[in-house]
Amino acid sequence: MDWVGFKSRGAELAKKYRYVLLVLLAGLLLMLLPECGQEQTVQEPAIQTEPQTDLQSSLEEILAQIQGAGKVKVLLTQKEGERTVYQADTDDTRRDTVILTASDRAQTGLVQQVNPPNYLGAVVVCQGAGSASVRLAIVDAVASVTGLSSDKISVLKMK
Question: Is 131 exposed, middle or buried (0-12, 13-18, 19+ CB in 10 A)?
Fold first, then answer.
């Protein structure tokens, strides 16, 4: 096939598929354009959570500051750990999690809420547990931090 035949055949194909070519060119042009001022940042949830061991060690440090408590050891048991609930779009047949895409194309789910862990109980062993006022102060402190009722907190004397 010579150059003239090739050129006329190309012109025929371009005329036949001109709308498809226009759509493809428009799509390529849009992909090459920079994002104009639409920089979105994904923020981490406002609630910073600590693992259970950090809560235990923090409680040990704080409870040791109670007058008369002395040396303190804490054990917390969990019913279930921390749970993150994601925002979802729902209709009659499906439920889809809402996904956020950052400017670096990283995707994360939209956090609706973060539920703290549910504790079953706490055992506190300390040197000053022989005093009723120390035991009461420790039970009150542990209850306020964990949300446990006083009957689920044991305070025992350290040997």
Answer: middle
Whole-angstrom distance, CA of residue 93 vs CA of residue 78: 35
What is the tens place of the pLDDT at every residue in 57-86? 889 999 999 999 999 999 988 877 677 777
Domain boundaries, the chain: 3-32, 48-82+117-159, 83-114
Is CATH 3.30.300.30 the right assignment for the domain spanning 48-82+117-159?
yes
Q: What angle is formed at CA 134 by the lines to CA 132 and CA 135, rounded to 5 degrees?
A: 65
- Residues in contact with 120: Cβ distance below 8 Å, sequence separation at least 6, in sequence order: 77, 78, 79, 152
For 42, which DSSP code?
P
CA nearest neighbour of 153 among 44, 59, 48:
59
What type of residue sits at position 65?
A: Q
Round to the nearest angstrom and report the end-to-end CA distance of the chain. 101
pTM (predicted TM-score): 0.52
Six-digit token string for 10: 């190309």
